Every structure is written in structure tokens, then in C-alpha cells.
Amino acid sequence: MHFTELGIDTRLEKQLAHQGITQPTDIQAHAVPTAIAGHDIFAQSKTGSGKTLAFLLPAVQRVMKQKALSKRDPRVLIVAPTRELATQVYSQLRLLIAGTNISAVKVLGGENFNDQIKALRKDPHFVVGTPGRLADHLSQRSLQLSGLELLIFDEADRILDLGFTDQVKMINELADHRLRQTLLFSATLDHAQVDALSRNLLRSPKQILLSASNEQHSDITQQLYLADHLDHKEALLEHFVKQDNVGQCIIFTATRADTQRLSQLLNDKGFKAQALAGDLTQAKRLEIMDAFSRENFKILITTDVASRGLDLLSVTHVINFDLPKHAEEYVHRIGRTGRAGFKGTAISLVGPKDWPSYKAIKAFLNDELSFFTVDGLVGKFKGLREKKPNTVWKKAEKKVAAKPAKPKRKAAPKKPKAPIQAPIDVDGFAPMRRKKKPEQE
Ligand code: AMP
């Protein structure tokens, strides 16, 4: 199938061909014609499925072909949960609109507010941003949405998980007019808050449900390794990163401090590694991501902050040095590899502290994740034993079944050994309190 068959303009199709993109993915084949037809969309799409183009293509096409509602206000607003994802969306948008007179502005937290005001004054057609900063501009009226035609939420579940419900409501209210079209993309649709949001935001939406977020990624091989303690994890990590088949690799840790520590450790061992954590300035984060995408270094060590929005085809391995607390985050992390038809490997190190997360992920994926071992690095930890409250309960049940229980006799009320003199209060009643037992008893 060609993009023109989905109603996409030949100029856009050529632009895609320059990027080597010739066939629409599933989500694009479903979402693009639905959005062009003017419907609201509530779409579930797995990470790496091509969802960004699924909303960018109809958006750009609309701006190209249809008359604007307002000359001043942005025509399309794209809201993404993190700076990294917003930057990723913006980059893809810039490629699509290259050589056209369509303009776009990126509005992220951590960047200069006044520069953003200046850019917004130029009346861009597209605004791509993170919810907090967008809300700040709306409050200051440096961004107005009364003429907005298309409102797009990318990874709406994540936006809400990060606590941006009020900002989303604000955006919705300030862009609330009859002609607005809304597209909502989420990794999961069975998320109570996303569900509630969709009812407020969308009008008779078309649901696009292509893959459940807990569906296995066929292009990603998942391997788990048991680890006794931190030193064991580090030894395993070193073993994996030096394998020949590792191209670029992203290592996820639970804490920022660990990103620094592991980066130091790997550099000391002669690997080119850099830490990317949320406490870096936006400029520094972009610099590191840019260097990684240019393959200037091999290993990126990060926390969940960067787990979305990193879209690099050269990432062959994702290593979970620690497992994430939320099972859905696991899916997003491993989705940093095996993108756009490439194969990837996701390795997870599971120590005693990771065990509850492992159980949650296993239940979420509804799958028996396999444990592997590395010769010479097999530890003692074999998983935590299940608590067995049921066994005790069952035994008790059996006993009951074998001997019909005697009717319980009421325990006779305890007689006080010494007569208790109820002290009389001034009102003539005994105060409502229990008397202490005499000490000698
Ligand atoms: P996304 O799910 O939007 O993050 O996209 C994942 C990757 O797939 C990106 O590198 C896109 O450039 C790429 N991509 C998107 N659509 C297609 C397509 N139709 N054919 C090949 N690659 C694609």
C-alpha cells in the first residue's frame, strides 16, 4: 500500500521516500485516513509502531490543504509528556515540512521562556510542547488556542501518569470549540484516567486498537538473568556490553546516582559511556542525545526519564540494570530497541530487590519470561519464595472437614479476682474506663 492511497499528498509522500519510508505501518494505515476524514481518534499503539507519523501526516496535510480558522493562533498543537519525546516529534515534523511554508515551534520546559514568547509571536502553524510549559504560556496569554484546529496528545497515559491532568484540562478548555478535532494516542487505553480524559476531550471518536501494550514485541528478544547483588550485576553488565553483537546500547538504572556510577565504571573499563539523567540542563541532555544519535559513543545510561522519545535504529540492546517498578515502563524501556523492523535484545538483571517488579512484569505480559545464565557468572539467588498463606488455610480447612467442628462455647466472662470498687465521680456516675488489674496478680 502507498501513502497516496491513504489520501496523503504526493509532496508528502516524496518527502517520506527521501527518508526511506515507502509503506505505511498498521497504525498509519488506520489512523491517517480516519484523521483526514475529520474524526476524533482514540488510538492505542505500541512504541516504535510509527505512531508519530500516524498523527503528523494528517496534521501536515490539513495545514497544507485546508483554509485556516484563524490567521494568528496555531492550527495544530501537539502535547507530549517529556522533553525528549516532544523533541523527537518536532524533529520528525521538521523533516516533513522542510521546503514548505509551514512553520513550527517547540515549547519545552527548561528552555528560555522569552525566546519561546518571541517564537510564538511569529504565529507558527504548529506548536509542539510539554504540558507544563504550554500551560505557563497559556496563563501568560503568550499562547492562544481559540483558533486551534487539531489537538494531538502523544502518549496520553504518560502525560497523566506524570501528573499533568490540570494542564491537560486547561489546554482542552482554552481550545474548546465545535470545529476542533482531537487525536489521542496512548500506549494503553485501559487506563482509568485516560479513559476519563478521552470522554472529556473526544467527540464520537474512532477507536484504533492495534496491539495491546502487553503484547510481545516480535522483534525484541527478552532475556533475564538472576543476580545476587550489585557486584554480580556489574560483572554481568560488563560481560554483556563487551559482546561483539552489541551495537549501541541503553542501560536503565533505578537512580540518577547509579547512572553516574555505572558510567564511571564502564569508562574505567575502556567503554565509551555517558549518563543521561533528569537533573542535567536541557541543553546538556540534548547534547548527549545528539551525540548518542550520531553514534559518538556506544553506551547511554539513563533512568526512566529518557525511556520514551529515544528513537534510534542503531540501538541493538537495552539492559535493565534494575527492573522498573511499573510493568508498563518495562515495555517502554525495551521498546527503545527493535524499532522499525530491526531486531533487538532486551536483557534484564533481576536481583532480590527486583523480584516484586519481575512478578508484576510477568503478570502484565501474561508470559513466562525466561531466565538465562552466563558461564562463570551463575549466582546463588534463584528467586524469592512465594509466601504460602493458602497452605495454612487449606490445612485448617481440611481439619474442619475431617472433624465436624463442635459448636463454640461462649467463653465465660472473666471474674475479677478482687472485687473492683468502681470509683464514683462527682456527678455520681462511675467514669467510663476500665480498671487496671492489681499489680500483684
Ligand atoms: P514511532 O513509533 O513514531 O516512534 O516510530 C518509530 C520509527 O519508525 C521511527 O524511526 C520512524 O521514522 C520509523 N517509521 C515510521 N513510519 C515508518 C514506515 N512507514 N516505514 C518505515 N519506518 C517507519
Overview of this structure, please?
The protein has 15 helices and 14 strands. It has two domains: 3-209, P-loop containing nucleotide triphosphate hydrolases (Rossmann fold), CATH 3.40.50; 220-372, Rossmann fold. A seven-stranded parallel β-sheet has the order 3-4-2-5-6-1-7, sandwiched between helices. The model is unreliable at 389-406 and 414-441 (pLDDT under 50). Helix 3 crosses helix 4 and helix 6 crosses helix 8 (165-174). The termini are far apart. It is globular, with a radius of gyration of 29 Å. With 441 residues, it is α/β, with parallel strands linked by helices. It has helices spanning 10-18, 26-36, 51-65, 83-97, 113-121, 131-139, 156-161, 165-174, 192-201, 230-241, 256-268, 282-293, 327-334, 355-365, 389-402; strands spanning 41-44, 76-79, 104-107, 126-129, 150-153, 181-186, 206-209, 220-226, 248-252, 273-276, 299-302, 315-320, 344-350, 371-372. The chain binds adenosine monophosphate. Adenosine monophosphate (AMP) is lined by residues 21, 23-25, 28, 48-53, 311, 339-340. Adenosine monophosphate binds at residues 21, 23-25, 28, 48-53, 311, 339-340.
Uncertain stretches of 5 or more adjacent residues:
389-406, 414-441
Name the CATH superfamily classification of the largest domain: P-loop containing nucleotide triphosphate hydrolases
Strand order of the largest sheet: 3-4-2-5-6-1-7
CATH class of the largest domain: Alpha Beta
In terms of DSSP E residues, the strand content is: 5-15%
Number of strands: 14
Query: Pairing-aware structural class of the strands and helices?
Result: alpha/beta
Q: How are helices and strands ordered from N to C?
A: HHEHEHEHEHEHHEHEEHEHEHEEHEHEH
Number of domains: 2
Report the mean per-residue pLDDT as an integer: 82
